[in-house]
Amino acid sequence: MKLKNDNLNKKFLIYGFGKSGISSFKYLKKKNKCFIFDDDKKKLNNKFKKFFISKSKLIHNHFDYIVMSPGININRCQVSNYLKNNQNKIITDLDIFYMFNPEVLTVTITGTNGKSTTSKLLYDVLKNHDCDVRLTGNIGNPILEQKKFSKKTIFVVEASSYQLAYSKYFKSKFSLIINISPDHLERHKTMRNYILSKLKCVTKQNENDIAILTNNNLIKNLLKSKRIKSKIIFLSKNKYAHLKNKLINSNFISSVNFQNLNFLFELSKYMKLDLKIMLKTINNFKPLKYRQEVIYTSKYLKIINDSKSTTLSSTIPFLETNEKIFWILGGLFKKGDKFNLNKKYYKNLEAYVYGKDRYIFYKLFKNKFKVTLSKDLKNTLKLIPKFKNVKSKVTVLFSPSAASFDQYKNFEDRGRKFNMLIKRYLPV
Q1: How many C-beta atoms lie closer than 10 Å to residue 366's C-beta?
Q2: In the predicted structure, residue 3 carries a pLDDT above the cut 60
Q3: Looking at 13-17, 39-43, 144-148, 219-223, which range is the least confident one?
Q4: Torsion region of 393: left, alpha or beta (phi above 0 gives left; psi -120 to 50 gives alpha)
Q5: In this prediction, what percent of the chain has a pLDDT beyond 70?
Q6: Are the C-beta atoms of residues 355 and 332 closer than 8 Å to each other?
Q7: Stretch 120-128: mean pLDDT, rounded?
Q8: What pairs with residue 214 in β-bridges?
Q9: Statement: residue 427 has pLDDT above 80
Q10: Residue 330: what are its φ and ψ, rounded to 5°?
Q11: What is residue 28's DSSP assignment?
């Protein structure tokens, strides 16, 4: 579907006025009628107040499209019934971009763990191939903010399950689902619904498009019920294991990060990328902040800030080591999350758990390894042994494996506080 000049002067409701809502409004308002609604009126400053529509007027209005912010839960918002009755009109900023720019080449990357790192790495690889490339989507850069691009521009889009669930028209030339484990089930309710939202980036593709998917039985079964036109590639974990000895960047030695690299190696064949440039880019890549970020290292001690971790599945690969680990975690436990660590690693592990759901974690771990509980991160760090005279390798791993909202604004806020507290309470 396209929105060209003959399809303008539509009536849009922008629901949710965060980053994506603001960018959608600015993109559409010049040639369309746009109205704004947000459950939190504080988000609407004086500059936009004249476009705000009240709840009473909203539910009696006809809109051609409802542009939903991914942060809005249709089941828990002020006009839930209205939205459910008008689901056929709900679209996203990704849809708007595609409707206006269907010819632009996009690579969509989704999955549970490592989307941001994989997206940023692909962006760097393409930049080093002298491509005009944009990094957008869930990584923090709304796609509708992008300016001055052409048909040769490549868009790398990190897409969340929330964005894709509301999407109706968005389509990618290349779609990657890099891994799947339970997440966001408090909203999606079931793994089936969660995976179906991810598969939106595949089901809209045509015969000339390519999807590279994690080898997951539930994905395979759900695809059987869909009319899939694109080329589907199910990628095995170790397909590119022979390239591991060419890596010197320790951030990609871990199992989960290397598994995600496999998707880029596979994609490179179809995008005709140079392997030498890829390997050089990978080896020079610096991790994104608060994502397996090594903030201190010495002969015997390493401290890692992985505040981005919000599930146990995202942390487990980093627990699979023969070194001693002091694991700091806690926050809001994710519904449906599982702790599937092989018990041979228990002997190296001590857990320090803080936050609202610390007793849920305690029940999971109590018969497996030593668990120490505390109300918050500050008190937790006071309980961890000092490392002045350590003579064997130890890792302090801050990988919360939970949502941050019980005590922090977001994972970035949580990551910043950890770095600050490390300097104060865990002198090294």
Answers
A1: 12
A2: no
A3: 39-43
A4: beta
A5: 96
A6: yes
A7: 98
A8: 235
A9: no
A10: 145, 170
A11: H
CB 168 within 8 A of CB 95: yes
Select from 241, 251, 238, 317 the least CA-distant residue to 283: 251
Q: What is the pLDDT of residues 223-257, one digit of tens each?
A: 998 999 999 999 988 899 999 999 998 778 766 67
Structure tokens at 390: 């350590």
Q: How far apart, in whole angstroms, are the C-alpha atoms of residue 293 and residue 307?
A: 9
- pLDDT tens-digit map of 299-332: 888 899 999 999 998 898 889 887 899 999 999 9
**What are the structural domains, with CATH classification, of the chain?**
7-91 (3.40.50.720), 94-284 (3.40.1190.10), 293-425 (3.90.190.20)
3-state secondary structure of 46: coil
User: Rounded CA gap, 18 and 368, in Å?
Assistant: 43
Cβ(243)–Cβ(265) under 8 Å?
yes
Amino acid at 42: K
pLDDT in tens, 150-188: 989 999 999 999 999 999 999 999 999 998 888 887 888
Q: How would residue 5 be classed by pLDDT, with cut points 50, 70 and 90? A: very low
Report d(CA 223, CA 363) in Å as an integer.
Answer: 36
- Residue pointed to by tokens 């691009």: 149
pLDDT digit string (tens) for 376-387?
A: 999 999 998 876
Q: Rounded to an integer, what distance in angstroms lies between the CA atom of residue 183 and that of residue 308?
A: 13
Q: How many Å is the Cα radius of gyration of the chain?
A: 23
Among residues 177, 194, 176, the alpha carbon closest in space to that of 185 is found at: 194
Rounded distance, CA 295 to CA 301, Å?
A: 11
Sign of CA dihedral 201, 175, 287, 316: positive
- Asked whether 384 and 301 are in contact (CB, 8 A), the reply is no
Shortest CA distance to 204 belongs to which of 161, 155, 167?
A: 167
- Order of strands, edge to edge, in the sheet holding 293-297? 293-297, 301-305, 394-398, 324-330, 349-354, 370-373
Cross-strand partners of 165: none
Q: How far apart are CA 302 and CA 388, in angstroms?
A: 13
358's enclosing H/E stretch is helix 358-365
Return the half-sphere exposure (C-beta side, CA atoms, 13 A cut-off) of residue 201. Answer: 31
172: which residues sit within 8 A by CB, 6+ positions away?
106, 107, 108, 157, 201, 204, 205, 209
